[in-house]
Amino acid sequence: MKQRSCIIGDGIRNFHLAYFAMVMATGIVSIAFEAMAFPSIARALFTLNLISYLILCTILTVRIVFFLPDLMADLRTLRRAVLFLTFVVGTNTIGMQLITFHQTAELAVLLWLIALIGWVVCIYFILLDFVSMRGKPMYKIVNGATLLIVVSTASVSMLGVRLLEATGIHAEYAYFMAGSFWALAFILYLMIVTLLIYRLFFQRFELNEWDAPYWICMGATAIITLAGAELAMRMPILSAWQGIWLAVLWMTVFAWIIGTMWIPYLLVMDILKFTRVGIAASAPLWIKTFPWARLAFGRQFHAYDPPSWSRVFPMGMYAASTLSLAKVTSFGSLAIISQYWSWFALLIWSLTLIGMLRTVCSGINIVTISPR
Questions:
Q1: What is the pLDDT of residue 138?
Q2: What gap in Å lies between CA 229 and CA 318, rounded to an integer?
Q3: Distance of CA 156 to the CA centre of its chain
Q4: By CB count within 10 A, which of 99, 104, 279, 289 is most buried?
């Protein structure tokens, strides 16, 4: 019993915040399927997501109360500090689901405020971490997870715009604030992705360095697209805002194009990573047939880890954002793309969930896997 208590205590102390990416992924896939008129799938995912979020928040709260020094140590290390932003995005995603499925604007407002406070705290520590590493080249500091800065900023705008409509607030300054967060996310994306492009394409980048968070190169543009589409659909229809509306619309389309251009590269890198099983060995046929099957199946080749959820969220977000863009631009063909991609995202979500459950049931303490 004492040994079990120690294991649980160590698990909470080293709680891997990447698990909030599971909330992000499940939530956005749920929203995408609701938009495609598959309510049974959407609501089942919402129920599962709400349970997961409450469990993860309980673990995080216990860690704050009993292991605050360890948590502060994480916040003072850049690669771990950015993972706290998954809590911000996950919280805003739950807020979006509450509005979508139950129209509970009051609770969603509370979640948005909690997420906003979390965003401010995280950005403060991340800026301090960047300052402390100013002697290193920036392209060596950033990685896929760094783009969570962009995703979290856009999520504040995304839920904020939905809340303005849900609560009946149509003040121009409120839409200006929501639009400011969206514009800031766009600027931050251009800054960070420039460094990532230099690292991925103009520096020596080994295949073993590739991991799921690099999918956020596309996921960040997808959430910018979704937030921009929501803003364009709901901002006040005033003559003074016409120029702003057009700018938002074209920037949103531009963000979607950038995200779409990332997809072939991301798929190829995933395939290369999953089919590489050793220097001399050749990948089995089932891996070559569908490489992502390694997330769920196999014994020797099982490839699940907590950051794997960072692959699912961009996939689901691309589906949801494409649907919203099709609605605001009246390009019906975009909805067709989204419908096929949504089922692929659900498949990868299912494989990732199976992989997680397999790891838990096998007795491996995955909660303690922390990038220290």
A1: 86
A2: 13
A3: 13
A4: 99
Please give the distance of CA 184 from its chain centroid, rounded to a whole number: 17
- Quick one: tokens of 35? 């938009």
Residues 6+ apart with CB under 8 A from 289: none
pLDDT at residue 239, rounded to an integer: 55
Count CA within 13 A, CB hemisphere, residue 308: 26
CA atoms within 13 A on the CB side of 352: 23
Name every residue whose Cβ is closer than 8 Å to that of residue 49 and which is 6 or more positions away in sequence: 23, 26, 27, 30, 93, 94, 97
Name which of 166, 271, 261 is nearest 222 in CA terms. Answer: 261
The helix, strand and coil proportions of the chain, stated in percent and rounded to the nearest 5, come to: 85, 0, 15
pLDDT confidence of residue 9 = 62
For position 94, what pLDDT does the model report?
Answer: 97
Measured distance CA(339)–CA(33) in Å, rounded: 9
Confidence (pLDDT) at 369: 39
Q: What is the mean pLDDT of each run of 10 residues along the chain (372 residues)?
A: 54 80 96 94 96 94 90 90 95 96 92 97 94 85 94 96 86 87 96 95 90 96 95 75 85 95 96 81 85 91 90 96 90 84 96 91 52 40
- What pLDDT is recorded for position 143? 92
Q: What is the DSSP string of 88-129?
A: HHHHHHHHHHHHHHH--HHHHHHHHHHHHHHHHHHHHHHHHH
Q: Which long-range contacts (CB under 8 A, 24 or more apart) does 366-369 make?
A: 366/16, 366/305, 366/306, 367/11, 367/12, 367/14, 367/15, 367/16, 367/19, 367/59, 368/10, 368/11, 368/14, 368/16, 369/14, 369/16, 369/305, 369/306
| Contact yes or no for 82/16 (Cβ under 8 A) | no
Under a CB-based contact definition with an 8 Å cutoff, are residues 141 and 130 in contact?
yes
List all residues 6 or more positions away from 39 whose beta carbon is below 8 Å from its beta carbon: none
The rounded distance, in Å, linking the Cα atoms of 53 and 355 is: 19
